[in-house]
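Every protein is a chain of amino acids, and every chain bends into a shape of its own. The fold becomes a row of whole numbers, each drawn from a learned catalogue of backbone shapes. The protein below has been through that process, and both of its lines are reproduced in full.
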Amino acid sequence: MTNYDIIGDIHGHADTLERLLVKLGYQRVSGIYKHPEGRQVVYVGDFIDRGPKIRETLHIVRNMVEAGSAHAVMGNHEYNAVCFHTPHKEEGGFFRSHTVKEIEQHLETLRQFKDFPDEWESFLSWFQTLPMFLEFPAFNVVHSYWNPSHITWLKENYKPALGGLTGSFLSESSIKNSQAFKAVEETLKGPEIALPEGVFMVDKEGHVRSECRLKWWASTKNNMGEGVMECPETERSYPMPPGSDLSIYTAEKPVFFGHYWLKGNPEIENKSAICLDYSVAKHGKLVAYRFDAEHNIDSKNFIFI
């Protein structure tokens, strides 16, 4: 049975990725990283934007996937890129706005591919066909949020082998509050909930927000400090906002995900749901989890740079 190394968000940090792959025992053969024992990498998405070597990152990841030494799921940044560059024929413009906020988020990728337009188009086409989740015999992988009802909807409606993010799929999933919109939005970006009136938070980009990301995987959610990402210090003891999902996620198979910009050293809060994003793009760590066939979830299996 194949053993796996699941790697968190990279955001264009190719040098760090290569050092992590070497630390995990992968060797570069004819330009492609492979493991001598047949291990495979599973990437949780968010390969682009922010980092200094986005092109190099994409070549490493796609080459490994195409050679059979890795699997990859779509991150919200890959989805956003497809939407940013795909014209909305019905409404005009593009499926993602081109305001300053969206351009700034995507700017480093645009800069690095300025002289490689054909190459960028080939990567955009590849993004369109990435799965939004993967199911393995002993674990699952998604970029942000594993919700069984969303996964069921995606199985029935999102077909990577048939083009994936087609114009018709983007049209359907861009209708606010539709089932399609919620399934895609939460699977790739996570569930959010409105903060109490008069309460705001500032996210990692410096934007003031009146909605917060829920720590859906948290093992306790007694207050906002435990159940809300980037909770303002003054509100940490507040009760969770009305309507919050206070259930504790449990599953027979653990799910691995990224997206949430955690800090410090990797740790396991909930053995059913393990986050692997530790903010490599903000001077944090690039994290992998070694998953073997005969396995018990344990923090000693984290490998990071």
